[in-house]
Amino acid sequence: MNDPVYTLQRGRTPLLVSLPHAGTHIPPALAARLQPRALQVEDTDWFLDQLYAFATELGASLIVPRHSRYVVDLNRPSDNQPMYAGANNTELCPTRFFTGDALYRDGQAPDAAEVQQRVATYWQPYHDALRDELARLKAAHGHALLFDGHSIKSRLPWLFDGKLPDLNLGTASGAACAPSLRDALAALLQSQSRYTVAVDGRFKGGHITRHYGQPAQGVHAVQLEQCWSTYMRETAPFTWDAAQASRVQPLLRQLLQRMLDWSPA
C-alpha cells in the first residue's frame, strides 16, 4: 500500500515490523528553514528497510515512513511529553541534532500551531495505519506482534554516556509484551557473544512500543535499538557495510522468527 506518508506491505503472519525513523524526505519549504547540515539527515535510522528486507520473506507486514524524523518524530507521543524524564531528549518536532546543536536557522523553529499541523499531516496517518494493521492482524490470528526497529550512532555524548550496547531490546520494562516473549527474545540475544546486549536498559521502548504494546488485549510489542556499527559506516558519508550487515542479519532474522514461533499461553 503506497501513501504519501508511508509504504505498507501487508503480510500473512501476526507480525508487523515498523521502522519509524527510516524516512529521509524533507519538504523543500521546510528544508529552507533548516541549517544546511540538516539536509544530510544525519540522525536517520539509516538503511533499516534494507537491513530488514527479509521480514516480508518471513510473512511479516512492513511499514516504513517517507519523511525524516526532522519533520516529525513518529516515535514520540503527539502531546510531546519527553520519553526519558530528566535526560536530554529530542522533541516531537526536533529542534536539535543528536549532538545538541541547533537544527533550525535562527527564528525558524516551528511554533505550537505548526507542530500540530505536522502531527495531522505526517504523524497521524502513520499511526492510523499502525493501529489498523495491528487490528487486522489480531482479527486474523487472534493476537498481533509489533517489532519496532531502530538504529543509532554508538557514541552520542549529548544524549548518552559512553558507548551504547550493540543491541538494545526494549519492552517498557516488561509491560509491552508477555513475559514469555520477552524472555524468549532476551535469551536469543544473550546466547551469542559477537554483540553486546541490553534488555530494558537505556532504551526501554519509545511511544510506539509503550502505546501499542497491550498484552492483555492481545497485542505484544518490542523495540530493538541497534548501533550503526553493526551494519554500516558510522561517519559521513554514511554507507552500508555489506560485510557487517551479513553478520548481523541472521541474528535479526532469528529474532523475528522467534517472535513468529512464539504463541500466547
Which properties best describe this structure?
Aminopeptidase; globular; seven-stranded mixed beta sheet; 14% strand; alpha/beta; 265 residues
Q: Gist?
A:
By secondary structure, the chain is an alpha/beta fold. It contains six helices and seven strands.
Describe the structure.
The chain is built from six helices and seven strands; from the N terminus they run ββααβαββαβαβα. Helix 4 packs antiparallel against helix 6. A seven-stranded mixed sheet has the order 1-3-2-4-7-5-6, sandwiched between helices. The mean pLDDT is 95. It is of the alpha/beta class and 265 residues long. The protein has a domain at 6-25 and 46-70 and 124-261: Aminopeptidase.
CATH class of the domain at 6-25 and 46-70 and 124-261: Alpha Beta
CATH topology of the domain at 6-25 and 46-70 and 124-261: Aminopeptidase
Portion of residues in beta strands equals 5-15%
The count of helical stretches stands at: 6
What's the overall geometry?
A: globular
Describe how the helices and strands are arranged.
Elements: E1 6-9, E2 15-18, H1 28-31, H2 48-51, E3 61-65, H3 112-141, E4 144-152, E5 167-170, H4 179-190, E6 197-199, H5 207-212, E7 219-227, H6 242-261
Parallel strand pairs: 2-3, 2-4, 4-7, 5-6
Antiparallel strand pairs: 1-3, 5-7
Helix pairs in contact: 4-6
